[in-house]
Amino acid sequence: MTHWSTLQRITRRSYAQSSGNITSSDSIKKQRRVVFSGIQPTGIPHLGNYLGAIQNWVALQHKLAGSPSLSADSVDSVQKILFSIVGLHAITMPQDPKVLKRERRESLACLLACGVGPGGSLEAAKPRATLFFQEEVPEHAELAWYFNTLTGVGKLQRMTTWKSKLAIAGDGDKCEHEEISKAEENLRLGLLAYPVLQAADILLYKASHVPVGEDQQQHLELSRDIADSFNHRFGKVFPLPQTMITPTKRVLSLTDPAQKMSKSAPNPSSRILITDTPEQIRKKIKGAVTDNDRSITYDPVERRGVSNLLSILGACHATTPTAGNFATSISQEDIHPDILAAELTRQGISGHAQLKGIVADAIIEKLAPIRAEYARLREDVPYLRQVAALGRDEARDAAARTMAEVRRKVGLDAI
Ligand code: AMP
Ligand code: TRP
């Protein structure tokens, strides 16, 4: 009998401790709670995006909907949650305009299908998330320019994402140190400045909390540095945003578990898209690289492939949390992978084929409603446009207020 339903009933261990640098609920109670996160419209989100980010965005929406209001009337007491599809980030790498346009629309439909944003009815009761296209709010690029004037080039050149793009774009060989490498010649200024634009995304809304996967930690540190530099130089405008690292912070590639699952990896079997059919999911999981040890144990250092499957299985079990304490808002009720491993072993599961069958079932069950909803929404372009316009107007409102303040502080307001 499958073990998946049994597993769903076994002891769960909360991941509360792994929610990034958020520590005590008391310290948070006194803060504004503005949540912001973004995703690039470069293809259908994969399971890493879903388990590492999107699923937690939905959880946060539920939390915010149920969290008690802070004191009523100051602007600072407003609780907001904003998610952006970041087209300006996407074009830091070459994109085909037709494909990009289609992918932007698909990204919106995907996020809605996952439960992010206003939900079925645009009139739905607030609070709910503002979902919008970054490029429809020109203040993002404007604030990024201000931040460009505060950010050291050296710091940007030391960012891991820049360095990994350099390694891919070039032949890997740096020329003599005074010369510019071939890779640097090929890459664009926008890519180097990518994290500055990300800081602008976050700080434009004075976000206090940013739920992301582990790969974004360094970008968030830069956002805090930039906020701090601005505040020191011009007076306090920005909060220092906190990273909310999600429990499933790093889903690994199915074909190379040394790498994270990624949209840009050349091998499509390395990732499961949230719109994949059950057959595709089964095939990709069947082909997932594991190891020669038939036993099922969780060891993310020595046994990455098997551990990745166990983490995915645990995260697929995560239920959308109900309203509660914000500080633990992304402490999902996942089943911890090492408990899962023990339970599977206890149930007599051995061998990776059986494990893969269970994992595939769990993913299929998780993604089935999303896939169906996506198929419906993708065709409903008028609705997608309505959602985008609503999100744009809400975001612009907040963005305009921050930019007016920034211009004034810097001395670039009306003479
Ligand atoms: P991107 O697709 O790069 O725009 O990423 C969107 C969100 O998904 C970010 O919060 C990332 O941290 C998260 N993310 C991307 N890949 C993974 C992964 N393999 N595991 C966990 N989270 C991920
Ligand atoms: N850089 C993020 C990524 O690649 C996407 C992103 C852009 C983002 N702006 C953001 C994430 C602001 C969080 C907050 O995944």
From TrEMBL:
Stored CDD domains: TrpRS_core (cd00806)
Any one GO molecular function term: tryptophan-tRNA ligase activity
Superkingdom of source: Eukaryota
SUPFAM superfamilies per UniProt: Nucleotidylyl transferase (SSF52374)
Keyword Aminoacyl-tRNA synthetase appears in the UniProt entry: yes
Family assignment from sequence similarity: Belongs to the class-I aminoacyl-tRNA synthetase family.
Protein's name in the database: Tryptophan--tRNA ligase, mitochondrial
Organism: Naganishia liquefaciens
